[in-house]
Amino acid sequence: MSTVKFEYVLSNQFKAENDDDDNVVKDGYEVFCEGFLYSRNKKNKLSNRWVCKHPKCSASITISHNCQVTNVSKESHKIVSPGNSVDPKDVIIRHKRRSKTRPKLPESLRKTIIDGIYTKTTNRIDQFLIFKSKNNKKLVFCSKTGLEIRSKS
Fold this sequence. Notes:
Helix content is 12%, strand content 26%. The radius of gyration is 21 Å and the shape is elongated. Strands 1-2-3-4-5-6 form a six-stranded antiparallel β-sheet, covered by helices on one side. It is built from two helices and eight strands. By secondary structure, the chain is α+β, with helices and mostly antiparallel strands.
């Protein structure tokens, strides 16, 4: 089983605190294996079970916490052939573009609307957009903490 090559890639839910060696359950990661992207389905004391991200595919892979493939489902990928594999970096970029929370690209600079979550920091409380001109030609982004540090320098 350990001859199956795979790679952990960052998911859209990745957070900086997930990036350490103690993260054996791989929170914030997805698995890229043989041209397919898998998300974690189950975790336990010894391993994680990952399933294909395509909604109509039931292929899965189980990887132990010491990074050994312990099981590959007998169900093959019926959606895409493995010969059409892509680079993991391209998968991440395409996956992020499909995000439903992101607004569509505006037709022009004047029609650009920056509001809601895009004006706040990741804690969704502090203001991040601190200045916006009438025609959106000047935008200033900075957190309160960053502004305080900048004013002291």
